[in-house]
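REVIEWER CHECKLIST
Item 1: Sequence provided? yes
Item 2: Single chain? yes
Item 3: Sequence as submitted:
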Amino acid sequence: MSFASSTIRVAGLASAKLRALRTQAESVGMTAEGYARQLIEDGISLEQRARTKTFDELFAPVQARFRKSGMTEHELDRIVDRVRTRHIRQNSKKKA
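Item 4: Structure as written out by the authors:
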């Protein structure tokens, strides 16, 4: 397979976002350019899967892992409620 070399310029990316990109790239042993390319390729792949598969097909692996975990729906509801409550408390403190 042959790959054409091309350049994409991204205007308006805040310097903090560029630093975050570089930091994340370094954390996985990649260059910022390689990491950005991987993000683009992954995004395109995800978009293609989302357009060609049903929600049930996309969500099936999650459902299978949930069933295998042995957790009940009630237990999951309690976890979600706890996290939601904590999130609401944290956000209300920020607004105060």
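Item 5: Key structural point noted by reviewer: The chain has a mean pLDDT of 92.
Item 6: Recommendation: ____
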